[in-house]
Design brief:
By secondary structure, chain A is mainly α. Helix content of chain A is 65%, strand content 0%. In chain A, α9 runs antiparallel to α11 and α11 packs antiparallel against α13. In chain B, α5 crosses α9, α6 packs across α9 and α7 packs across α9. By secondary structure, chain B is mostly helical. Classes of the chains: A mainly alpha, B mainly alpha. Chains A and B meet through α6, α7, α11, α12 and α13 of A and α1, α6, α7, α11 and α13 of B.
Amino acid sequence: MSIASHAESPGLWVLAWRRFRHDRVGLVSYYIVLLFVALVAASWTGLIASDWEKEVGVSHAPPTFLGPGAVASHIEPAAAPQSLHSDESAESNVIDPLAEVLAEIRGGKPIGAADTGIVDPLADVLAEIRGQSGSASATETQAATLLLGGDKWGRDVLKKVIKGTETSMFVGLAAAALAALLGTVFGAMAGYYGRWIDDLFNWFYSVFTSIPYLLLILSIAAVLNQKGTITVILILGLTGWTGIFRLVRAEYMKHKVREYVQAADAIGASHMRRIFVHILPNVSHVVLVQLSLHVVLFIKSEVVLSFLGFGVGVDTVSWGSMLNEAQTELLIGNWWQLAAATAAMAVMVTAFGLLTDALRDALDPKLK
Amino acid sequence: MFAYIARRLWQMIPTLLGVVLLVFFLFTWVGGDPAYLLAGKISNPEQIENIRRQLGVDQPIYVQLWIFITQIATGDFGVSWSTNEQVSDIFATRLGPSLTVLVPLLLVSTLLAIAAAMLVAYLRGSLTDRMVMIGCTVGQSISILVYIIVFQYLLAYRLGWFPVQGWGKGFTENLFTYSLLPIIVGVLVSLAPDTRLYRTFFLDEINQDYVRTARAKGMSETRVIWVHVMRNASIPIITNVMIQLPGLLVGAFLIERFFSIPGIGREVLLAVERSDFPVIKAVTIYVAIATMITNLLADLLYKAVDPRVQLK
């Protein structure tokens, strides 16, 4: 804020920022979250990890600090439950003998389509992919170790974690934004107008809350019967507005009788103007804290949904789908993908949770 | 008291109607014609035709709604689309295993969380308090999936202390062989958030005037904490546990799935995977009813614990 000639009393956000700056834990978690956001932005624009699908290492490549021999000793072929690729386990330290088979498998479906006489619109792309994978196995040898290890197909776990962070955080943020929007608008309407509008939204609220959250999500997932990032965002956002609604409604009921709203009424401000221009800035701190609480909640839900296979699509990597792969990898002793996804999620969720606490303390100092 | 219960039950009707409409809308309009869904799953066209007739797909929408409401009222949701088992039978057989795991899990985790929360609330501000709180925050941030995967791998697969998964015949065998590891994992997962929450409940009470009064008149610390503080802090704890109950039945689906426990949660997951609508519809409706009833029970219990509470 600029220093005015007359003594201007600082606003809510200035005061909150002053308090927040002295909260060391909050500040550190704020920077960690910023770092994650920067990472997501870089990954989203394709600056980093855009080639996460490339098989840069050998299958099940161990992390560099373990050395290349770390895998072979652990592998018990009988324990590998994924039959599709289990046959590649023993020779994984040699130059991948299955690279061509793999390329063929990946190219399998579109080739079949071309045989039927229909012009394959993806033929060029396919040729390119096959050319790439062919040249990859011919010219570049696949690395025996990767910084954080590789997965079943030899993809770099580090890049997958970055890409997974992008997906999970995007879902969490977008779904929380949607839920906050719905909860705020519904809560504002119900709290401000009262009477039958309040009854109507309360009815909605009690209907949505009488079905346990996870069951509601699963039913909607069953009905939609399609996977994808947008679907997950819609499911989480459309079901998760209830908590925000309750709080915003209470705030509006408190604020609508205050003098500044009466003053706004006296100068002829319309209902909509009073709701969104006069009252909303005064309750926005409640929404902000709820928003960041819900980001964590939705990230956790997304991870479970994707793990179960009801979440993001098969061509997208998220922390949940990584954990799903890691579950079978752990049985043959490959713990790095599990560790990487868990660590990324734990750091992110802890930082976001602490940030939320700090935000709440800074914005609402009366609350303990 | 009786009038209160009657009024609450009366107020449930519009909510229940809303739930019925929501589920009906979801599965009839969004879900679409079952013939398309089942085309790849059931090969027998007569069977699909039967299902369509049973749902009244060709009938006007209000007839379909009426069919759905009679299904709920009679408890007869027909047969599962994928196993041909009666939906009511599915519930009857799956409830037992679910409860075998969930009742001990809930008891142990609540008692442990209360003990831990009381300890850290008593030692508030100390190093122990801060360490436990940091531990809880970090522990909470790790996905439940990781707990299950790692513990199943370490304790069952590697060390062989517990069976990796499975379910037996007798109750004792199930409880003491197959349920132990699921219960341990479940307790660990719920301990961190519960401890944090209950700690705030205890802290709210521990600073009250009546606690100082009790100490001032020379009461032993044990009595102050275990009788005076405990009794008051138990009110929000009871509400919290009660409200968790119906969701827990479904919420334990991850544990049931990993450890192959034939419970309700696993059944819901299977039904979602197979688009088995009758099962999901039935679970959603009945769990919603159970939620409303436990909310009422929670309020009544609230009154029993705290006589100051006025039910209106």
